Amino acid sequence: MQEIVYLHGFASSSRSEKAVLTEQYFQAIPKVRFRALDLPYTPNEAMATLEIMLAEPPLAIIGSSLGGFLATVFAERLGCRACLINPAVAPHKVLKNYLGSYDHPVLQQRYQVSAEHMPLLKALMPESLQNASQYFVLLQTGDEVLDYRDAVQYYQGANVQLVTGGDHSFVGYQHYLPQIAQFCLQA
């Protein structure tokens, strides 16, 4: 059984629209186990959770936004494929604008985003990609949260699909699921 793992973005969960659509799509594919993980929001806790959950490397990791950043960190460590949807390239630069207290919608926990988390996120960021061909990156130019040009630059050499318009949620995501599955399931 081949495993595909989905990592949600900041202030999201395994029950987000993208996660649910992805789960429904992969359920129809034989011999594939799909898991959408709910991650803690502090960098150390998220990394500890992922190290346990990904002890057996998956075939591929799908990550959206902050989940795309974490998918990159683990794809680099594990050598697996990663499909990224509007990924955060340098989350320490973006999240510094979101300091404060939040509620996790599924875990039913309150969490803090603090300035102390920013150096931890920066330290996790791979300086460069070891094998750009293991990445499929979906970007929309209308992303109002992240500058898509940062991802275009960082993921040079990867299979990057740049879509004009859209927004951070990646409008029309469900139409890209066949491409995502094809990329993830390549041997």
Automatic annotation (TrEMBL):
Superkingdom, taxonomy of origin: Bacteria
Pfam assignment, any one: UPF0227
InterPro entries: AB_hydrolase_fold, UPF0227/Esterase_YqiA
Name of protein: Esterase
Provenance organism: Alishewanella longhuensis
Lineage: Bacteria, Pseudomonadati, Pseudomonadota, Gammaproteobacteria, Alteromonadales
